[in-house]
Amino acid sequence: MPSPFLLPVLALSVCMVGAAEFMLAPMLAPLASAFNTSAAHASGLVSAYALSYAAAAPLMGWLSDRAGRRGVLLAAMLLFAVDSIALTLVPTLRAAMALRILGGLAAAATIPTVFALIADRIPQARQAGAMGGVMLGMTAGIAAGPAVAGLLVEAWGWRAPFMMIAVSCLAAFTAGWHVIPRDMPRSCATGKLSSSKKASSGIFTLVLAKGAWNGSAVAGYVFAGEVLRMRYQLEVGSVGIAVSVFGLGLAIGNMLAGHVSRRYQRDENTLFFAAVVVAGSMTLFLTAAIGLPAALGCLLVWGAALGIAAPASTAILAQRAGANKGKVLAASESVNNVAVLVLLPVAASASATYGVTPAAALLGGLCLAGAILSATVRRTL
User: What region holds the Major facilitator superfamily (MFS) profile domain (predicted)?
Assistant: First the structure.
C-alpha cells in the first residue's frame, strides 16, 4: 500500500506547476522594470514556459515509462527548485526566458508522471477520486498563485514568488524521497492493466475529444471576464471576484470527482455527462441575457463539471494506456495546450468581428463535439 502522505505530496507538486505558470500575471510590470524592458516583452516568460511544457510533455511521458516514475518526478522537482532560484540571479530577460524553458521541461515531466504514478499505485475504482484530489492542488496553484505572487511582490520584490516556488519544490522533493514508492518492474506494470487492442483502440479518439472539450472550456473561461464587464457593467475588482466563482466550482468538482465516479460506476459515463454539462453551462453563460446571479450559477456549474470531467478523463486514459500511460497522459497534456493556444485567437477574432455569441457558439459546439466523441468511445467498451 502506498504511503498515506503520497497524494498530498503529489498535490503539492502539481500545485507548484499551476502556480509557476499563472503567477506571472500580476508580475509583468515589476519584471519588465527589473529586466529593463516592456511588459509585452516580459510576457515572453509566460510563453516560453507554456510552449516548452507543450512541446516536451510527450518526451517526458515516454521517459517516465522507461526510466521510472520516482526518478523522473524527483528530478523534475529538483530542477524546478534550481530553476526558480536561478531566475532570481540572472541579469537579462533572455537568460530568464531560457530558464523558463527549463521550468517548462520540469512541468512537462511532473504532470503526466504524477497521474501515471496514481494509476500505477491506486486501485482502479479509486483512481478518479485520487486524481481529483491531486488536481485540487493544481486548481489551488492556478487560483491562488497570482494573488499570493502579487502580495509577495509588494512585500519583498519580484524575486519572492520564485523563492516561494523553490522552497515548496524542495519540500516536495524531500517528502517525495520518503513517500514516493520504488518503481515496479516493467512486467508488473504492464500486466496490471489490460493491454489488449480493444482497450487501447479508443485512446487517440479520447485524446482528441479531451482537447476539444477541455480546450474550448478553458478558452471560453478567458472570455468570461469580458462578458461580465460588458453585460453587467462591473468594475475590474468586481469582475475578478465574479470570475473566481469558476475556480470555486472547479475545486468543488475536483473534490466530488470520486463520489460521482462511484455513483455512475464507470468513468466513461461520468466523463460524457460532465462534458455535456460543461458545454451547456458555458454556452448559456456566454450567449444568454440572464441576470447576474444566474450567470454566476452558470460559472459555478461550468467549473464544477470541468473539475469532474478532467480526473475522469485522466483515469480512463491511464487505464487504457497500460505500460505506456506516461506517454499517453503527456500527449494529452500537449493536445490540451495546443487546443487552447489555437482556440483563443480564433475565438477572439470571431468575437471581435461577429460578436460574442458566434464565438460562444463555436466554443460550445466544439465542447459538445468533444463530449460526443467521448460517447462514441464509451459505447465501444
Answer: 6-381
DSSP 136-172: HHHHHHHHHHHHHHHHHHHHH-THHHHHHHHHHHHHH
Cβ partners under 8 Å of residue 106, min gap 6: 76, 77, 79, 80, 83
Rg (CA), the chain: 20
For residues 10 and 239, what is the distance between their CA atoms, to the nearest angstrom? Answer: 32
Residue range(s) occupied by CATH 1.20.1250.20 in the chain: 6-183, 197-379
Categorize the per-residue pLDDT at 379 as very low, low, confident or very high, splitting at 50, 70 and 90.
Answer: low
CATH superfamily of 6-183: MFS general substrate transporter like domains (1.20.1250.20)
The pTM (predicted TM-score) of the whole model is 0.80
Residue 195: phi and psi, rounded to 5, are -115, 20
- Rounded Cα–Cα distance for residues 228 and 263 (Å): 34
Are 270 and 261 contacting, i.e. CB atoms less than 8 angstroms apart? yes
